[in-house]
Amino acid sequence: MRRRLAGGGSFSLIVRWLLGVAVCASVMGMPGFAQSGRGAISGRVTDASGAVMRAARVEVQPGGQTTFTDDQGQYTIPGLPVAEYQVTTSYVGFNSHTSSVQVAAGQTVKLDVVLKVASTTEEVIVTAERGRGEAEAIARTLESDNILQVLPVEVITSLPNTNIADALGRMPSVTLERDEGEGKYVQIRGLEPRLANVTIDGVNVPSPESGVRQIKLDVIPANLVDSVEINKTLSANQDGDAIAGQ
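and the corresponding structure tokens:
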């Protein structure tokens, strides 16, 4: 009888000892961020209609930690020291969203984000140096005594112009009479092509067709011309038979 009681007492001591070890283990195994003073941020990213945003980028500053949302639009950024953070969420085609959150030790801050579609009124500005040929053409236009427009070879060859008529058709107040889609005769300020003179190096060019005054400019390749000038008003040193221009 005494042996049974003694045995029972030993068993009871062993059980108590095991329970104590388990309690110590559970205390020592508590989450690391609770002991080290760290927290986390988690949440869900959706659009204005409530649809989840997969692979949305979430960045935390300071620190620069970055993560992406999963298939359910969820994200988690663990191991953050106690501090105030700026959380920026971005997605292609949507406006970025930035929120300020305070992370506490041993806690997870929940931050759900709703992204809005980016505005379609955004502007794209492209700047570049002005080409020498184009700058020279502007200078010649400004110094001219009459209304003059100059088309240099740099501009002619930079565009898909097969002939001089197509190149002239890109200039203001100039339209083309086309034959099978290709420019042929040039109209200046809406007047008939026969009312404009065509000169090459200052020499009048007669029409190769009988009874027709206008010149077919589609026969002159665009890459053979150094520059083209359109005189919309004539000066005293020019022939006066060009009503529309020269």
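(Above: one complete record from the training split.) Helices lie at 2-28, 32-36, 132-143, 153-158, 164-168.
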